Amino acid sequence: MINFGIIGTNWITQQYIDAAHATGEWKLTAVYSRNLEKAYSFGEKNGATKFYDQIEDLINDKNVDAVYIASPNSLHFAQAKQVIEADKVAVVEKPMVANPTEWEQLDEALEKHPQALLFEAARHIHEDNFRAIRNQVGQMKLIQGATLTYAKYSSRYDSYLEGHEPNIFSLNFAGGALQDLGVYLAYDAVCWFGMPEEVAYFAQKIRTGVDGKGIAILRYPEFDVTLNIGKNINSELSSEIYGVKDSIVMDNAAELNRVEYIDEEGNRRLISDDPESNPMIAEARDFARVIQDPDNHINRKDYQNWLDLSRNVNKLLYNLRQNGKIYFTNEKEED
Ligand SMILES: NC(=O)c1ccc[n+]([C@@H]2O[C@H](COP(=O)([O-])OP(=O)(O)OC[C@H]3O[C@@H](n4cnc5c(N)ncnc54)[C@H](OP(=O)(O)O)[C@@H]3O)[C@@H](O)[C@H]2O)c1
């Protein structure tokens, strides 16, 4: 059993706790919140027995093997580093960190603390339907491009429109559409097609300086991939990967509920399964497998692949952000 603590008490943490408990491999033991009463009320209903308002206390608790970090994006780096330096497991919500300099520092910390493990909770790459697409891409004769969309109106955009600056729409917290939703599409592109040679990001910035929506173009040697991202619009557009006459059509490039392969004759074949009711179960199961048997060669290989992937996705997001001239607070040009 993996005893875990949490940082962040929003709905996404609840979803991860539910997923983790559903696997039967994890047990929530401790909760950190800036507010002790909140730690207690959130934690007690989920079976936790320790409640903290100091992160160090949570991390140093001997009944905490792993920490799930679901704080605002800009805090991920320092918190993950602290967990690694305590020789524990850090499960960090996407996006892992804000830029490659931070990623390099996490790598250095991992090198110094070989007992520690680091995971980015990029949920959809762990799902069967994601793998089904990758397999289908591998079987197609030629790829000629893709158009991937993930655009969901954020409940926090109402607050932005009222004149506030919610974390997710703030440069201070490394927010914006690319970081928040584009990360899923960046994972799609890197996993299915590899790293692009050249990128451009046409960001539609909002008052706070982050991108509310935008179009990214990833140039590969033989084709382009277009990413359509938004947090201030809703889109029901399907996403597609183009072969020659064949294609893969998915209802949503980040949620992957229904995916079809359409062959050269126009025959449609469903390649997806019904997704699990909680989309975080697959990652919670995968992480548990590696945490419980890190020396198993398949687990070690998967773990290294996830780290490499996360590093590349971070690099891609950073390159897109630079191209879109979006700079987070206190981020030096060379970061
Ligand atoms: N995988 C997914 O499907 C998914 C979905 C949604 C979000 N996420 C990720 O989860 C993370 C959290 O997102 P969110 O929307 O929940 O963020 P959020 O509401 O802005 O903050 C998350 C938590 O951090 C704490 N917090 C809030 N403001 C803070 C501040 N100024 N300083 C320090 N702590 C603060 C709060 O916990 P306390 O009040 O208890 O301290 C809050 O519950 C993000 O990285 C996001 O990308 C992932």
Automatic annotation (TrEMBL):
Residues 2-116 form the Gfo/Idh/MocA-like oxidoreductase N-terminal domain. Transmembrane segments: none annotated. Residues 160-248 form the GFO/IDH/MocA-like oxidoreductase domain. Pfam families: GFO_IDH_MocA (PF01408), GFO_IDH_MocA_C3 (PF22725). One of its GO terms (molecular function) is nucleotide binding. InterPro entries: Gfo/Idh/MocA-like_OxRdtase_N (IPR000683), GFO_IDH_MocA-like_dom (IPR055170), NAD(P)-bd_dom_sf (IPR036291). Signal peptide: none annotated. It comes from the Bacteria. This is Dehydrogenase related protein. The lineage of its organism: Bacteria, Bacillati, Bacillota, Bacilli, Lactobacillales.
